[in-house]
C-alpha cells in the first residue's frame, strides 16, 4: 500500500464526488501494484479560456520501488474544453493503470531472466548515523535487520528508504538479520536513480 497519497486541487472546486472518485481510483492502482509507495494526484484548471470553457488537467505521479517514477497526464480535449472533470480523471487513471501494468510485466519478466538482479526486499527503515536499517521482505513482509558491514561494495551510504535490494539472511540473537545486502540494478540503471 502507498505510504503516502497526496491530492491537490489548483483553481478547481473540491467536492465529495471528486474526492470519492479519486480515492476509488487510487485504491485500484494499489491493487494493480502493491509495491507502489507513493501517489500524488494534481487536478488543475486553466484560466486562459474563459469564453471557451476552462479545460481540466489531471496529473498522476507514482513511485514504485526500486527507483521508478511514473507520470500519467490527461487534459480536456482541444475540441471539447467543456469535458466534465470526472471524465478527465478516469482517462488519467486509465493511463496510470496501463503504465503500472507494463512496469509490473517488465519486473516480472526480469525475475525469470535475472533472478540475482531482482529485489527480494525493500529498505523500510534506515538509521544512517547509527549504521543500520531494516529491510521489508517482498514475499513475507517480514522486517530483517541489516548493519552497514553487511552491505556489499561499501554502498551503505547509497542506501535510501524505498530502494530495492537483494539480500541473504540468517537467524541472529534477536531474529532475522541480513548477512549480505546488495543494491539491485534494474535494466542497467541503479535503483537509487529515478526512471521515467
Structure description:
- The chain has 196 residues and is of the alpha+beta class.
- The strands form three sheets. It has a five-stranded antiparallel β-sheet, with no helix packed on it. The chain has a four-stranded mixed β-sheet with strand order 1-2-3-4. Strands 10-11 form a two-stranded antiparallel sheet.
- It starts with a strand and ends in a 6-residue tail after the last strand.
- The protein folds into two domains: 4-113, 2-Layer Sandwich (Double Stranded RNA Binding Domain); 116-190, OB fold (Dihydrolipoamide Acetyltransferase, E2P).
- Strand 3 and strand 4 form a beta hairpin.
- The model is unreliable at 111-116 and 186-196 (pLDDT under 50).
- Helix 1 runs parallel beside helix 2 (85-113).
- Helix content is 23%, strand content 37%.
Record the SSE blueprint.
Elements: E1 4-10, H1 16-32, E2 38-45, E3 56-64, E4 68-75, H2 85-113, E5 121-127, E6 132-137, E7 143-147, E8 164-172, E9 175-183, E10 185-186, E11 189-190
Parallel strand pairs: 1-2
Antiparallel strand pairs: 2-3, 3-4, 5-6, 5-8, 6-7, 8-9, 10-11
Could you give a quick summary of the protein structure above?
23% of the residues lie in helices and 37% in strands.
Which features does this protein show?
single chain, Double Stranded RNA Binding Domain, 11 strands, disordered C terminus, alpha+beta, 196 residues, 23% helix, 2 helices
**The number of domains:** 2
Q: How many strands in all?
A: 11
Give the low-pLDDT segments.
111-116, 186-196
Please, what is the CATH homologous superfamily of the largest domain? Ribosome hibernation promotion factor-like
At the fold tier of CATH, the topology name of the largest domain is: Double Stranded RNA Binding Domain
CATH top level label of the largest domain: Alpha Beta
Sketch the topology as an H/E string, one letter per element.
EHEEEHEEEEEEE
Number of helices: 2
